[in-house]
Design a protein that fits this description.
This is UPF0173 metal-dependent hydrolase Arcpr_0036. InterPro entries: Metallo-B-lactamas (IPR001279), RibonucZ/Hydroxyglut_hydro (IPR036866), UPF0173 (IPR022877), UPF0173_UPF0282_UlaG_hydrolase (IPR050114). GO terms for molecular function: hydrolase activity. Pfam families: Lactamase_B_3. The protein is α/β, with parallel strands linked by helices. The protein has one domain: Metallo-beta-lactamase, Chain A, CATH 3.60.15.10. It has 6 helices and 16 strands. The protein has a 7-stranded mixed sheet. Strands 7-8-11-12-13-14-15 form a 7-stranded mixed sheet, covered by helices on one side. Strands 9-10 form a two-stranded antiparallel ribbon. α4 crosses α5.
Length: 224
């Protein structure tokens, strides 16, 4: 699988299918591509905040790619004309051979615009397409990460380290202890001033736990 970081919490996973997660591109000062340059088969959204829902609607309609989201958010997007697959925590979608499991996250999730709309629950995903990849979404560390590690055995964990809105580097280290992945990619940092962090410092501490840390610049990829 080829994994590309598109800034903030947005990743493109290219295995047997092209999957984009949390496509916040428009308005993202670190985004290396525009939404019209994205061509995918499936879109995963962890929650309805603008820096995660992002361009999901526009990409979905142009690519005719379904949006996977927690049920309440899927209903909201379906009313806006999107093809959606509404799931809930604990469920697994088999999308033409690619397994997408929805797991818990600890974070708020309402859609904030001209009015506040319930977006259900913030979630994470485990994508199994030859390799098991866990995208934590926006979350604090929580003990059920141990279960995610035991059940899904993710080889790669995409973890927020920005603090303020999510885990900090310190708490992300505890997440690594619970998940026990082989590879960790930090995300959700340095997009805006409140989440400024030094990923190299995080890498030094995380690699003491026996994991490999891959620091990507927006637009960079690695294969696993």
């Amino acid at each position: 699988m080829k994994i590309t970081w598109l800034g903030h919490a947005c990743f493109l996973l290219e295995g047997t299918k092209k999957i984009i997660i949390d496509p916040f591109l428009t308005g993202n000062p670190t985004a290396p591509v525009k939404p019209e340059e994205i061509d995918v088969d499936l879109i995963l959204v962890t929650h309805g905040h603008g820096d995660h829902l992002g361009d999901a609607e526009a990409i979905s309609k142009r690519c005719k790619a379904p949006i996977v989201a927690v049920y309440e958010l899927a209903v909201y997007l379906a009313k806006r004309g999107c093809e959606t697959i509404g799931m809930n925590i604990g469920g697994t979608l088999d999308y033409e051979g690619v397994k997408v499991s929805m797991v818990n996250a600890v974070h708020s999730a309402d859609i904030v615009g001209n009015e506040i709309v319930s977006g259900g629950k913030a979630v994470g995903y485990v994508v199994e397409d030859g390799v098991s990849v866990y995208h934590a979404g926006d979350t604090d560390v929580f003990m059920d990460m141990q279960l995610i590690g035991e059940i899904y055995k993710p080889k790669v964990a995409l973890l927020p380290i920005g603090g303020f809105y999510t885990m900090s580097p310190k708490t992300a280290l505890k997440a690594i202890e619970l998940l026990k992945p082989e590879i960790v990619v930090p995300m959700h940092y340095n997009t805006f001033p409140p989440i400024k962090q030094d990923p190299e410092e995080f890498k030094r501490e995380a690699e003491k736990l026996g994991v490999k840390v891959v620091i990507l610049k927006p637009g960079e990829s690695f294969e696993v």
